[in-house]
Amino acid sequence: MGAHALTASRELATFDSEHKNRILLAMADQLIADEDSILESNAKDISAAEENGLNAAMIDRLRLDPVRLAGIAGGIRQVADLHDPVGEILEEWTPSNGIKIRKKRTPIGVIGIIYESRPNVTSDAAVLCFKTGNAVILRGGSEAIHSNCAIAQSLQTGGVSEGMPEHAVQLIPFTDRESVKHMAEMDQYLDLIIPRGGTGLIETVVSLARMPVIKHYDGICHVYIDSEADLEMAEAIAINSKVQKPSVCNAMETLLIHQDIADKFAPSIANSLRENNVQLIGCEAFKNLISKTDPDIEVKAATEEDWSTEYLDLILSIKIVESLEDSITHINEYGSQHSDAIVTNSEANAEIFLNEVDSAAVFWNCSTRFSDGEEFGFGAEIGISTDKLHARGPMALKELTSYKYLLLGKGQIR
Amino acid sequence: MGAHALTASRELATFDSEHKNRILLAMADQLIADEDSILESNAKDISAAEENGLNAAMIDRLRLDPVRLAGIAGGIRQVADLHDPVGEILEEWTPSNGIKIRKKRTPIGVIGIIYESRPNVTSDAAVLCFKTGNAVILRGGSEAIHSNCAIAQSLQTGGVSEGMPEHAVQLIPFTDRESVKHMAEMDQYLDLIIPRGGTGLIETVVSLARMPVIKHYDGICHVYIDSEADLEMAEAIAINSKVQKPSVCNAMETLLIHQDIADKFAPSIANSLRENNVQLIGCEAFKNLISKTDPDIEVKAATEEDWSTEYLDLILSIKIVESLEDSITHINEYGSQHSDAIVTNSEANAEIFLNEVDSAAVFWNCSTRFSDGEEFGFGAEIGISTDKLHARGPMALKELTSYKYLLLGKGQIR
After folding, report:
1. Domain residue ranges of chain B, discontinuous segments joined by +
2. What pTM does this model have?
3. pLDDT computed for residue A380 by the predictor
4. Does A37 touch chain B (CB under 8 A)?
5. Which of A353, A386, B19, B344 pairs as cysteine with A342 (C-beta 3.0–4.6 A)?
6. What dotted CATH number matches A2-215+389-408?
7. Is A290's Cβ below 8 Å from some Cβ in B?
8. How far apart are CA A105 and CA A82, in angstroms?
């Protein structure tokens, strides 16, 4: 599969955007044409999941229906509409040797995607890799194996009908750990692996992989309410960052409050959070303060572990800090370098925070929930990288490309 | 050391270019001030090398003298003069949510450099990392351990005198394999490892490392002489690519000749190569041709292995190919995606070659020897990456940086 993918990737690198887009549209059409067989395969996964006693939320994530399938096909058509970054000249200059140098954006080559349950990832990941001229090898989770095989088969059939190299999109039909190990050792064929899933999966891939891995670890995101904050705005941003979608990586997990405004802000935000059914875990100072102002509101005492916990739920840890610098130190120590926000009217304080917080995305006076490829205007997202190399933060099409240097001479020698 | 480096890197990220440059100049001055002690330490390495029976070339690479030390210090001053890319705004835009997004260039954080014998790498690598605001942990080879310790100590002393965080530049005083293993597992502190050395070292680091590794593998570089080539230019480029400095990674290892011009070009280049003491290894067609035209010139028969061998010496494998496409297929199959050239007067042929050869640097009508950070006008070079992620081809200051997104809102929530 690796050797086939490499060959396909070399062919794919010569395709122009218009040809790639025709293939993408054919993939979308084929998914709709194959609705019956895809839903049949999905039914097998659903009944296996029920037999295995998966919970209702997990089964719901697995389930496909005509509307969801149309959504997947619609997503492919959207990707076809996006600008293709491959082929862009990133820089061009002529050093003193007189050779014209062009830095040109290229596909990466062959990308491996290892993911867990949701079958829509099969299509989403495949088409983003394809749009950028990369061959892809997919390895999904066991729960969705029938759905994944059916979707991949459909993408292949549709693509090949418009001239796609057959091995540009491949799915590994095995879901055992051995198949992950094999992929991780195939560095002669795979230029990159992107694991999409929980920490356990990412850790496994990182420890085995010989090729680059782009990691999408936890989001332990903070909102810091500065002494100079507009407290009404602060409350709106804190509530939005926590409760709008608590299960995602860009949701706030820890709220930091400057001590100078704590007396005023803490009771008010505690009330709002409780109204939104958020369970509160606080530092000693916060807990003491609330026990005086609102003894009815329960605040659990925070342990050291709470500061580095990604709850992904309506649970929030809250800490009162002594200064702006304290908030930065806390975030750099306990955060996951994902997405962190300051609320302040002071431009000077904002600048210090933006510069010194070492995270992929740092926000001033807006919700951490904007840490998202769509919200960034990228039109798509393959994940949010917590790495600092190659791609940091929301990853879309550009982040699935590499570059090469073209040197145009007139017979120069050294 | 890792924890200290991380703390130092956070402090360093707040330094402006002017302050970093003052520190660099202080490092250069200190190296000169410490000449006696550095040369004394170097003498220990030299006598150990002599006792251990290292060959003359290796001992020469190890040796420092006042001129070489002044060269190292001069190199630091040159780096101080280079433009600091950190802090640049790479892009700025405002998507429909109204939040202004800035993509800002930042240091990577903490970089590990694992290298072999030459003591000058201690300084070269440290100052490039420092210039870009990164803390560095160096781990050199056993042959140069005394020199490396003395140079690192001198850089530290000089740097600290101008306010450098003490742990911004650290050298591991051990040279056993265990120390490489430790570094490779320190992914909580090290953002990147760059191994500079032979394939064995790189392989070891790749198999152990949990963090990203930027690899500088072999250069199996090709020059392809097209049917439309100016044969005089072709000869000059081929000779230059092979003989100007055969021991380096951007030297040609395989010459490909289009069959249509082989009768004319092959005997002539065979003669020139022989005059330059290059030993010839040829495909059957080349061997047969030369045996007819110049029976005195010895051509060894090429084995399959020759096509993927980096000789790093006055040895060259030569193959006659049937077509432009054949040359591309050969290069993509046997090359190392490093630096490959076409000589042709046909723009159409050049374009196909430049697009389809999947290498970091692809040359048209110039020598592969230009694959070099200095020749690219970068002013420095930490190596030539054979990876496709993060950095490809010659790496200098920009390639030692990452970025972060700053989002400037007015209270936006989702």
Report:
1. 2-215+389-408, 221-375
2. 0.94
3. 87
4. no
5. A353
6. 3.40.605.10
7. no
8. 16
